[in-house]
Design goal:
This protein has 14 helices and 25 strands. The chain is α/β, with parallel strands linked by helices and 579 residues long. A hairpin with a 2-residue loop joins strand 17 and strand 18.
Length: 579
């Protein structure tokens, strides 16, 4: 019996090791690095599936409190319980599928962070038939299994993130679907025990899966444990309950799983580590989150110091929700310091992510109703609108913001511009003003406002694209019916276009503009020819202004459109042979 126990222990201990390499098959930590099975440093380039298992109100553009249970109540008021359940089942099935993970791989990502809602895996404590016991739900585990299989097929790491813990882990109620009328995670021992048990269950299920990258055990706790401090825990000096719970979760995981990295997050949305460190496990990563501040080393120095002091890797576990300029700068900063990163989110109803879920007309009317701007839709109208919204979450129905992916994957390592669209001029042609080249600011375009830095400046949030559509650079783009155009032009701003001419020669250019004031622009061709362009007051109506007899060469040409006096809108460039 004794020999059998020893054999069982050794079998469990060595199950994560490859006989071929003599190294663990699992992503793991060695000193200050995250290492793969071959002992190579791994720079995680990931994205979070926000809105999949857990909706937040801003992702659906709702005008009321954004917890998922509140959103659900408003939907039930329109279409009833049964149809609401049908909508949520379609949402869960459509939002993230294999095609999404395949696409992420093709774009260059190597990891995925799954923001989990605990109620897909187990019942809330108040709904348990037997007090103190845990009812396990297959829905969440099956969804995780499917996602893992897609990641495994693409050799991508899946990071499990407890985004909505039992009871909710903070005063920022939207991010954890917290109901303030019930006991929070921190106010209920039952909720804490359920969270610990859930992590142990996950550890049992996935302990032998090498493409599970890590367990991110509590997302963005934001709760003060000290009287008189900021309620979101940014000022706490000890964080004793948070550390104690994370230690207990780690112990429960290690009872069943010795293989996987455990990721910890501080208080105050992940960044307040007072009293939490040093780490208590030798396969642990310190995570931090970064939003709306400057991208310089000074602002991440605290975490660089943690890495050095505790000889423990750090990870930028969540960031995003900004402009392409900010994305490029943040990723460059992280990678220059060997810090992996995970963006937020992959898709939502909004323009500043790789994929945008389009708003169908029926759902637009529902939003108007919720804002008090329209009559209540019929149950049938609302049902069809919600089901179309769920259908629109499928990748093939999303709008792909290739400029966002370019800003994340290419631009941190390249200061060159590439065409947004392939423009070939045979005898004549047109291109949209909004289809200027992709590339860093100052290379492909320039705009006076290019990102939101309100956390660093202490001032209000700044829009970088005032029209909030089509592209995610600083350029202000608006939509009018089915047309998109550049607006809010200011002196000193400019746009670069790459055009390919099958036949060189002299061509006439026409620019479609609209303005209520006189404006002025300059057009440069291949950094040689410069022409001034007077923009007339068109009383806001679209009209054309021309430049004659401009030389273009065979093949690639670059046209730079520079605003000298702004206030006009700009929609189209037309190219025609010289008359």
């Amino acid at each position: 019996m004794k020999n059998l126990l020893i054999f069982s222990f050794l079998l469990y201990f060595f199950q994560g090791y490859s006989q071929e390499t003599g190294k663990t098959n699992f992503l793991h930590t060695v000193d200050q690095k995250i290492i793969d099975r071959n002992g190579e440093n791994v720079l995680l380039r990931g994205i979070g599936l926000g809105g999949h298992m857990l909706q937040e109100g801003y992702m659906l553009q709702v005008p009321f409190s954004g917890q998922q249970y509140v959103i659900k109540e408003h939907i039930e008021e329109l279409i009833g319980d049964e149809k609401t359940a049908e909508f949520y089942e379609a949402w869960l099935n459509n939002h993230t599928r294999k095609i999404d993970i395949d696409s992420l791989k093709s774009w260059g990502f190597n990891s995925v962070r799954l923001p989990m809602h605990y109620n897909l895996y187990t019942l809330p404590v108040e709904d348990e038939p037997v007090k103190g016991e845990n009812t396990w739900l297959e829905k969440g585990f099956q969804m995780t299994d499917s996602l893992l299989s897609w990641c495994k097929a693409n050799e991508m790491y899946l990071i499990l993130d407890m985004h909505a813990a039992p009871g909710g882990q903070g005063h920022d109620v939207n991010i954890s679907d917290r109901d303030p009328s019930k006991s929070s995670l921190w106010e209920s021992e039952e909720n804490k025990l359920k969270l610990i048990a859930l992590w142990k269950k996950l550890g049992e299920r996935y302990r032998d899966e090498p493409w599970i990258g890590a367990y991110d055990i509590i997302n963005e706790p934001n709760w003060t444990f000290e009287e008189g401090k900021a309620k979101n825990g940014t000022e706490d000096s000890k964080n004793i309950p948070l550390r104690e719970l994370m230690v207990n979760i780690t112990k429960a995981i290690r009872e069943v799983d010795q293989n996987h990295i455990v990721i910890i997050e501080g208080n105050g949305w992940g960044n307040n580590y007072n009293g939490i460190l040093p780490p208590w496990d030798d396969n642990m990563v310190i995570s931090f989150h970064k939003y709306w501040n400057y991208n310089n080393e000074e602002l991440i120095q605290k975490f660089l110091d943690f890495r050095e002091k505790y000889n423990t890797p750090i990870w930028l576990g969540e960031t995003g929700e900004n402009s392409n300029v900010w994305f490029t700068d943040a990723i460059r900063l992280a990678e220059e310091n060997n810090i992996g990163w995970c963006w937020w989110p992959l898709k939502k109803l909004g323009f500043n992510n790789p994929l945008e879920v389009p708003v169908n007309p029926g759902y637009a009317k529902i939003l108007q109703y919720w804002r008090g701007e329209a009559e209540k839709p019929s149950e049938e109208e609302a049902y069809h609108a919600f089901m179309q919204l769920a259908e629109n979450t499928k990748l093939e129905n999303n709008y792909f913001h290739k400029g966002v992916v370019d800003a994340m994957m290419r631009q941190p390592h390249s200061k060159t511009a590439i065409p947004f669209s392939n423009v070939v001029i045979k005898d004549n042609g047109e291109l949209k003003a909004v289809n200027y080249d992709m590339g860093p600011i100052g290379i492909a375009y320039y705009d006076n406002v290019s990102a939101n830095y309100h956390v660093s400046t202490g001032e209000g949030r700044e829009n970088w694209n005032n029209g909030r559509t089509y592209r995610n650079d600083g350029v202000d783009i608006y939509k009018e019916d089915e047309n998109v155009f550049v607006g809010d032009t200011e002196a000193g701003e400019w746009l670069l276009y790459t055009l390919n001419f099958e036949r060189g020669g002299n061509y006439d250019l026409s620019f479609e503009v609209a303005s209520n004031v006189p404006g002025k622009a300059q057009v440069n061709i291949n950094a040689n020819t410069q022409k001034e362009l007077d923009i007339p007051n068109t009383s806001g109506e679209w009209g054309w202004v021309d430049l004659k007899n401009l030389p273009f060469k065979n093949g690639k040409n670059q046209l730079k459109f520079i605003v000298k006096k702004g206030g006009f809108n700009f929609r189209t460039i037309r190219v025609e042979p010289e008359k």
